[in-house]
């Protein structure tokens, strides 16, 4: 089965082709560097860029895969959550394709796609704990099996990737800030012991809060005393400490020793190293090129949904800015085509 995957939930326009026998045939990602000047994603510009980039990206994805539109068996696209104007761009493209080639439209949840990007190379056993860390999300989810999710907690304010981007901006570095800070931190020392937000907070055991940490880091940057690399290292130590310790706590509480890390921040080298120090945990990360937003994770998750659950939706299924992963399977059932 050949599935086309479309991802436009934020600022990356991506189209990929997944073949259930041969794997990923193509994965074209067009990143909108235009947002660098704003230090964050500007919604109206993002939507316009998706509209402009969609057809050239689709064309390249088909060419790279050496197929034509009529070879496709189904079209999977990210319907939620994300920037609504960005989502609508991809969903409209997907609906138009589904209508014209008369092939099923398979909806995918963005967080689900990040998690199942880990399955593309090889299937992982259930249950597992998923830590999803990206520019828009910081969530801990217990995955009992595909489409059976328990939401344990998430950020009460800023997402972790967003904080990386803001700290990089305050340091006068580029966008996205995560990879730059990750690299810089390798040369730095922990000169300031920043607070570890909500780490020992019983009521918010599985919730996160990074906006106070962001303000504390920016205050130190503005003092102009410390070297950039030392600020980067001190900040990253606090972030990684919180992410790893909360995930390990959930593993102990639920008696699970399998962890799947996903989303853009799962590319972080220190996060990877610190998780791998837990020898009694089986920890999975996506390959680097599937950490940040991409169409391949959407195509694969769509394929999985169609194969295992037989789900496709009618053209009146709508994109939504918000929808928790545990609520998504139920929402799908009410729209089953
Ligand atoms: O998953 P993603 O592409 O978009 C969302 O769904 O939000 O994640 C993008 C985020 C950005 O905030 C970027 O700074 C961060 O992932 N990121 C990293 C690294 N690579 C990307 N953060 C920390 N360390 C990295 N190596
Ligand atoms: Zn994402």
Automatic annotation (TrEMBL):
GO terms for molecular function: iron ion binding; tRNA N(6)-L-threonylcarbamoyladenine synthase activity. It catalyses: L-threonylcarbamoyladenylate + adenosine(37) in tRNA = N(6)-L-threonylcarbamoyladenosine(37) in tRNA + AMP + H(+). One of its GO terms (biological process) is tRNA threonylcarbamoyladenosine modification. This is tRNA N6-adenosine threonylcarbamoyltransferase. Its EC number is 2.3.1.234. The keyword Metal-binding applies. Fe cation binds at residues 110, 114, 293. Pfam families: TsaD. Signal peptide: none annotated. Residues 24-300 form the Gcp-like domain.
């Amino acid at each position: 089965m050949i599935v086309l995957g479309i991802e436009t939930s934020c600022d990356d326009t991506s189209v990929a082709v997944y073949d259930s026998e041969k794997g990923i045939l193509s994965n074209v990602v067009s990143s909108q560097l235009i947002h660098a000047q704003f230090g964050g994603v500007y919604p109206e510009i993002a939507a316009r860029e998706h509209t402009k980039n969609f057809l050239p990206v689709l064309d390249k994805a088909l060419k790279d895969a050496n197929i034509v539109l009529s070879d496709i068996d189904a079209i999977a696209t990210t319907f939620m959550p994300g920037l609504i104007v960005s989502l609508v761009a991809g969903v409209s493209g997907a609906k138009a394709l589904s209508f014209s080639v008369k092939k099923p439209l398979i909806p995918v949840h963005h967080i689900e796609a990040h998690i199942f990007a880990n399955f593309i190379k090889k299937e992982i056993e259930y249950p597992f704990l998923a830590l999803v860390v990206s520019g828009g999300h910081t969530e801990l989810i217990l995955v009992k099996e595909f489409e059976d999710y328990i939401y344990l907690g998430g950020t009460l304010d800023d997402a972790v990737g967003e904080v990386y981007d803001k700290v990089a901006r305050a340091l006068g570095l580029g966008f996205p800030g995560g990879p730059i800070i990750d690299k810089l931190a390798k040369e730095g020392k922990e000169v300031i012991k920043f607070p570890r937000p909500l780490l020992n907070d019983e009521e918010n055991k599985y919730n996160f809060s990074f906006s106070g940490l962001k303000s504390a880091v920016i205050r130190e940057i503005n003092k102009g005393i410390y070297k950039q690399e030392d600020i980067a290292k001190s900040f990253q130590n606090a972030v990684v400490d919180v992410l790893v310790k909360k995930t390990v706590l959930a593993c102990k509480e639920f008696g699970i020793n399998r962890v799947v890390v996903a989303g853009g921040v799962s590319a972080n080298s220190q996060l990877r190293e610190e998780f791998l120090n837990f020898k009694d945990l089986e920890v999975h990360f996506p390959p680097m090129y599937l950490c940040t937003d991409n169409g391949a994770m959407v195509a694969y998750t769509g394929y999985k949904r169609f194969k295992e659950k037989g789900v496709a939706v009618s053209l009146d299924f709508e994109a939504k800015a918000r929808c928790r992963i545990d609520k998504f399977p139920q929402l799908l059932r009410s729209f089953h085509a």
